[in-house]
Amino acid sequence: MWKWLHPYAKPEKSYQLAGKFLPWFIVLTVVTFVVGLVWGLLFAPADYQQGDSFRIIYIHVPAAMMAMAAYSTMAIAAFVALVWQIRLAEMNVAAIAPIGAVFTFIALVTGAAWGKPMWGAWWVWDARLTSELILLFVYLGIIALHNAFSDKVLAGRAASILTLVGVINLPIIHYSVVWWNTLHQGATIMKFDKPSMPPEMLWPLVIMIVGFGAFLGVLTLMRFRNEILARESHRPWVTAMVTEKLAGEK
Amino acid sequence: MAFDSISDFFAMGGYGFYVWLSYGLTFFALAVLIINTLSKKNKIMKVVEHRLSREQRIKKAQNREGTL
User: Which of A32, A74, A242, B21 is deepest in the core (most CB within 10 A)?
Assistant: First the structure.
């Protein structure tokens, strides 16, 4: 039943499949970003307490959510890489880590710029903020560890193990606002109750979340392809591809 | 529309600095990531192209030696 998956364990096939998905993700990203940003920045009503400063939510929440989604994806890939020794899964870990780090960075700086006018401080050592900062350090650690080995097989295995260790941080981030007294507000959408936001504010947020998800997809596909190319650069299929490209330029 | 004028929009009800700082930094960070991703691909392709042209030159030189 799952046999159709087998050819995609071949780097060449995976490279081509990623290339096929790429344009669709790019289109989805552009459309959702344009619609979401215009709606969120221009048409959503100002918050009755926070005024227009709440518009930071349209990048802060999507970036934070996708930083965690990226980590989950990476953790699944790391598990697959360790258990079934699939090289492409290792490449996926290496591809996603920098994206997750940047998304976490965005969540942190937009949070700081939102915290200053609302809480009166750029930064507080509170549970949500601290656990999110740890997520950034975990991402940086995975990137550094992967770069520390010149043997890419060893690098992939080490980075995968560290990725799995870091999973412990995900539930801590998510439940930090419940488990500890914190300045950060509780969940607005990711809860079983009705979302505590009016639809004219919520819709652009949902669109932006989809947009950041699609953008995560775009970057993952591009970096995944880079990893394959770098590791397979001596294989005949890469040589053939480059020869064809050079012939096309002449 | 939530704003009456363009200057109103940029002012963001007095929170302009914080809102545009957030959006600016986000845009900057994502731009850096895209540029890094594209330049990485370029670099890999350059290395392969360089290797290929070197192999071709070697082959050519060997052929020439054979004719002499």
Answer: A74
Nearest to B26 among A106, A239, A242 (CB): A106
pLDDT digits (tens, 9 = 90+) for A189-234: 766 677 778 888 899 999 999 999 999 999 999 999 999 999 998 8
* Residue B29 is assigned to a structural domain of this protein: no
What's the pLDDT score for residue A192? 66
Question: ipTM beyond 0.85?
Answer: yes
Three-state secondary structure along A90-115? HHHHHHHHHHHHHHHHHHHHHHHHHH
Q: Which domain holds residue B67?
A: 38-68
Q: Is residue B65 part of a domain?
A: yes
Length of chain B: 68
Q: Indicate yes or no: CB of A63 within 8 angstroms of CB of B26.
A: yes
B14, part of any domain: no
Q: Best interface-test mutation with A: which of B3, B7, B22 has the largest number of A CBs within 10 A?
A: B22
- A154: tokens are 């060893």
Considering chain A, what percentage of its residues have pLDDT values greater than 90? 69
